[in-house]
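It would be a great kindness if you could assist me with a short task in structural biology. The matter concerns a single protein, recorded as an amino acid sequence and a row of backbone structure tokens. The record follows directly beneath this note:
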Amino acid sequence: SIVAVDIYTLASTGNDYSIRFWNLKDGTCRKVISKAHSNFITNLGLIETDVLVSTSFDGFIKFWSVSNSKLLKEVKNQRGFIYCLSFDGQGKMFTAGEDQLIRIWH
């Protein structure tokens, strides 16, 4: 998964369960959140200018500070894998997973 954090930075995931932040000007990796999850990261999203959300096959939704890469909050409310993550632009977040439910987060 990949998401634009700002006009100069992309966040991406890989098969090592980490999140990487890339400088778009020179293509370098600026920072890494190693082992952000314990299984494959399925989605990334930005809910505020400084909060990155990640979902994973480990069933967790994690909220990260973009500025310091610290974990702000984690929620395990989905049974099994989380496949999809979406936002409505008005403060609601949606997840869908292996349990065949769509959850709405306020």
